[in-house]
């Protein structure tokens, strides 16, 4: 019978990592496989990008619209978002 054992350093690092993270996160991660963790990370990243795109669209950017003024349209929408985050009035956009 061939039984493989993990080196002590690997076990110690694994235990240290689990002890240092919050309890709720430790339970989620311990029950998840690496594939499930990656899937959750991709889902979170996609949701973040979709929220950013929605915010740009709410501030005047239309990715499916006329692209002759593409960089300027995107920059105008981003400057409006930045102004809102800073609590300043939005700058006037140029057509």
UniProtKB/TrEMBL annotation:
Source taxon at top rank: Bacteria
Q: Which residue ranges have biased composition labelled Polar residues?
A: 56-82
UniProtKB keywords: Signal
Q: Which residues form the signal peptide?
A: 1-26
Query: Has UniProt tagged this entry with the keyword Signal?
Result: yes
Report residue spans for region: Disordered. Answer: 26-95
Segments of skewed composition (Basic and acidic residues): 42-55
Q: Does the keyword Signal apply?
A: yes
Q: Report what the protein is called.
A: Purine nucleoside phosphorylase
**Organism of provenance:** Caballeronia temeraria
Cite the source lineage.
Bacteria, Pseudomonadati, Pseudomonadota, Betaproteobacteria, Burkholderiales
């Amino acid at each position: 019978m061939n039984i493989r054992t993990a080196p002590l350093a690997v076990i110690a690092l694994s235990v240290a990592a689990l002890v240092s993270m919050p309890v709720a996160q430790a339970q989620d991660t311990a029950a998840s496989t690496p594939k499930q963790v990656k899937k959750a990370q991709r889902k979170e990243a996609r949701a973040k990008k979709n929220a950013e795109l929605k915010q740009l669209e709410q501030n005047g950017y239309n990715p499916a619209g006329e692209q002759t003024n593409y960089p300027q349209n995107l920059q105008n929408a981003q400057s409006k978002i930045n102004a809102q985050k800073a609590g300043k009035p939005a700058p006037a956009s140029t057509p």
